[in-house]
Write a structure and sequence with these properties.
Length: 589
């Protein structure tokens, strides 16, 4: 089948996030044909180049995400009226405030979803109006060849202002000033930038049998539009919940309450629309699944697919006898405040009181300027808590805590870093899917972790879990394992067996292979594919599209030749799709 893979700031670029996961997925599903549609993150990313793609990737189409295209287009009167109506409707929905029953509850201070006595503010009605406004803008963008200028126009700002000044607007939205409205309009322009792409015709996503969005951010919008225009089913994969990331990034110290309210409303409504339209949603863990259900995702269409890790990198360490120093604790990861190394250092101070010969190795590089400052703070705290120790009055002192980076002489590889300790510690206060914990499990190491994110789901019963920000509990768990080598060995073996069963690349690829067939068999795209001579191509539609059985979505629309979800004759149906030729690669738009 033909898969339209939608990525954002990652694959197929060398330095992108989640690039390795997408590359393993594409290479593991060589029986399918892939077209990659990538929203690029930065010019530096483009300069670093792309990964070497396998031959079954037919083409790559890219579009900038961080920079807006210059647009000197003049819109006609009818187009301006259509834009004002659709954008004004979108602004009215956002001014009602963040979603309540329909979407995720907003953080403290964002309030509810408008006035309770207003029928127009009911969650279902607002969701319908959001979808109507979004697809109205999409159809206008298709007819006009894009909307970059309109989305940055004074008309958009005035529509937001009118919506925020109406009596039914959220109390915080009514406080929005001109600067706040300009900030929100700029955010909406970036989020709706995919509306102006030319990816949705029969030579693009309209020819795909399935769209697979690797994020629920802006890259998922083309998948929604492919479903709206051509009836292409959509699979959404989230290993980090986009809405949760937005709430964490847009805090009270970054924007005003009015901006937070309007942006939270947009992100929540978009998430609800995306989850409602997707054929299947695949969170990476139960923590992400709960967020998606809160946002309105149908539980029957959610399939948890754990991320796949390259187990071969850790095979040698995992299968070798444990030769690590029995008194060494190891922490591996990116140095940043969310990892809470301060609590770890205080916990290690208590460990040293019980086990004077214990040592702690912190292996990782800081993230940005904030991470560098945090690393300096941790170094100073370690020097204060643990003065350099010497065996005699004439010997040089040595600190029991060391800060190192992977690649040095004592830890040349990631596997060597985990192998250097008897116990691996995770002390985070915020965590999604703890990939580092899985790596430690593949190395056969026992772990002590804080109960955040998907830690309990990943660990199962193969490690010790303590509350976050509790140095005493963390210290007691570490001491218990340091004093019991048989227990360490037993937990390490169980952890490796669990990781090999649940968190490998092979398991991940097998799960998506099954999901692709399930979606296409239940949501077939009915179209005619022509060969080079212009005649219908036999077997062009996947055989799975004709598998009999019970439909998972009884209300799913059948895509007829007259177009998806339209009465016959109202709009001309999609033209026959020509068969794909040799692999081609297209540059940036």
């Amino acid at each position: 089948m033909r898969i339209g893979l939608l990525t954002e700031g990652g694959y197929p670029y060398v330095g992108g996030d989640a690039g390795h996961w997408c590359d393993r997925l594409v290479r593991g599903l060589g029986q399918h044909e892939f077209d990659v549609y990538a929203l690029s993150g930065s010019r530096r990313q483009k300069d670093e180049g792309r990964l070497e793609l396998p031959p079954h990737v037919s083409r790559v189409r890219t579009a900038p995400l961080r920079t807006a295209e210059k647009d000197g287009k003049a819109y006609g009167r009818r187009a301006r009226r259509r834009f004002a109506e659709s954008y004004g409707q979108l602004a009215e929905v956002l001014s009602a405030g963040p979603a309540g029953a329909q979407g995720a509850d907003p953080p403290a201070g964002l309030g509810g979803a408008g006035r309770e006595d207003d029928p127009a503010a009911a969650p279902g009605h607002l969701a319908d109006r959001f979808g109507s406004a979004l697809y109205g803008l999409a159809e206008l963008a298709r007819d006009e060849g894009g909307l970059p200028g309109a989305l940055r126009s004074d008309t958009a700002v005035r529509a937001l202002e009118r919506a925020c000044r109406t009596p039914g607007a959220h109390s915080l939205a009514r406080e929005a000033r001109v600067a706040d409205l300009l900030t929100v309009a700029a955010h909406l322009e970036r989020a709706l930038r995919p509306l102006s792409l030319d990816w949705y015709g029969d030579d693009g996503l309209g020819a795909a049998d399935l769209c697979h969005a690797t994020t629920a951010g802006p890259a998922a919008l083309p998948g929604l539009l492919a479903g709206h225009f051509s009836g292409v089913p959509l699979l959404v994969t989230e290993y980090g919940v986009h809405l949760r990331s937005h709430y964490l990034a847009v805090g009270p110290d970054t924007v005003t309450p009015a901006v937070r309210t309007l942006l939270a409303a947009f992100q929540g409504r978009f998430a609800a629309e995306l989850y409602g339209r997707a054929a299947i949603v695949t969170p990476g863990n139960a923590h992400a699944r709960r967020w998606q259900e809160r946002c309105g995702a149908d539980r029957s269409r959610i399939r948890t697919v754990h991320p796949g890790m390259e187990a071969s990198r850790f095979t040698e360490v995992g299968e070798a006898p444990d030769r690590a120093d029995p008194g060494t604790l190891v922490w591996v990861g990116r140095v940043e405040p969310a990892k809470d190394l301060v609590s770890l250092l205080h916990a290690f101070a208590e460990v040293r009181r019980e086990e004077p010969r214990a040592r702690l190795r912190v292996l990782g590089a800081p993230v940005g300027s904030e991470g560098a400052a945090y690393l300096g703070q941790c170094r100073a705290l370690a020097a204060q808590l643990f003065p350099d120790e010497a065996e005699g009055v004439h010997a040089v002192g040595d600190n029991p805590v060391s800060f190192e980076e992977i690649g040095g002489p004592d830890a040349p590889t990631l596997a060597d870093a985990y192998a250097s300790g008897a116990v691996v510690v995770l002390s985070s206060v915020v965590e999604g899917f703890p990939a580092g914990l899985v790596e430690a499990m593949l190395c056969g190491r026992p772990t002590v972790s804080t109960d955040v994110g998907a830690v309990v789901e990943v660990i199962g019963g193969t490690g010790l879990v303590v509350p976050p920000r509790n140095p005493r509990a963390l210290a007691e768990a570490c001491v218990a394992l340091l004093r019991d080598p048989e227990r360490r060995e037993r937990l390490g073996a169980a952890a490796r067996a669990r990781a090999l069963e649940l968190f490998t690349v092979e398991q991940n690829i097998a799960a998506f292979r099954t999901l692709y067939l399930e979606i296409v068999s239940h949501c077939p795209v009915r179209r005619v594919v022509l060969d080079q001579a212009g005649k219908p191509l036999p077997f062009a539609v996947p055989a799975e599209a004709h598998v009999p059985g019970r439909w998972t979505r009884p209300t799913a629309r059948v895509v007829h030749r007259d177009g998806p979800g339209r009465a016959p004759g109202t709009t001309p149906g999609p033209a026959p799709v020509p068969a794909t030729g040799p692999a081609a690669t297209e540059g940036a738009l």
